[in-house]
Amino acid sequence: MEDGLKTVQAPWAVRHCRFTLQFERFAIELLLHCANIKAAASMLRLNWHAVNHIMQRAVERGLSRRQADGIAYLGIDEKSFKAGQHYVTTLNDLDQGRVLEVVEHRTTEATKALLETLSQQQREQAKAVSVDLWQPFANAVNQLLPNADLVHDRFHISQSLNDAVDAVRRKESGELRKTGDKRLVGSKYVWLRNPEKLHTRQQLELNTLMNGEFKTGDRRGR
């Protein structure tokens, strides 16, 4: 041959890769349903590194196709590792249900670095950001997304309200017990549980407590 050997790119595989794209797609689907890479590798009869490389290539393909379109509603959340001693923070597109970026730690600086992965135009077009009550998240959003509303998610607001109600109950119960009044003893979950999920006996107990003029049930927050 006059021109020697030639290398032709096959449409069904990535260059220098030993797996077809169809197989890699199957591997990614399997990874989504497995607890970790090791479990998927065992089912695919591959080693950990081979499956990890498949996952990395899939991420690279996804990032290369990502469009710099405006994202109206963002979410910032944290995940803990090693018994809560180490955190990562994620940036999410709430409309499309996708993770946009992940950084280590949950500090203000880490969160700012997360938001800086968005283009200036995307940051200006963001309408709202859902976060928990962690102050560093709010600090970063206020600095980098000045046009976006800061929205605290319902779960953490409910948790804070429940903590406040129970703090009042415990304090009031301690004061009443000194006078021999034990009506608030053991009533924690009657106050905190969703009224729609209370049994008949619990509902009657809550009605009785609400009529007892306790500070715990005072909606005026005396």
The H/E string reads HHHEEEHHEHEHHH
The unreliable regions are none
Q: What is the terminal-to-terminal distance?
A: 94 Å
Mean pLDDT: 85
Coarse shape = elongated
What's the CATH architecture of the largest domain? 2-Layer Sandwich
Could you tell me the strand content as a percent range?
5-15%
* Rg computed from alpha carbons, rounded to a whole number of angstroms: 27 Å
**Assembly level:** single chain
Major sheet summary line: 5 strands, mixed
Indicate how many domains the architecture comprises.
3
Helix content: 40-55%
CATH class of the largest domain: Alpha Beta
By CATH, the superfamily of the largest domain comes out as Ribonuclease H-like superfamily/Ribonuclease H
Give the neighbour order of strands across the main sheet. Answer: 3-2-1-4-5
Describe this structure in words.
- There is one protein chain.
- With 222 residues, the protein is α/β, with parallel strands linked by helices.
- It folds into 3 domains: 21-65; 73-152, Nucleotidyltransferase, domain 5 (2-Layer Sandwich), CATH 3.30.420.10; 155-217.
- Helix content is 46%, strand content 14%.
- The protein has 9 helices and 5 strands.
- It has helices at residues 21-32, 37-44, 48-65, 108-115, 120-125, 135-144, 154-177, 188-192, 200-210, and strands at residues 73-81, 86-93, 98-104, 128-131, 149-152.
- Strands 3-2-1-4-5 form a 5-stranded mixed β-sheet.
- α1 (21-32) packs across α3 (48-65), α2 (37-44) packs across α3 (48-65) and α4 (108-115) crosses α6 (135-144).
- It is elongated, with a radius of gyration of 27 Å.
- The termini are far apart.
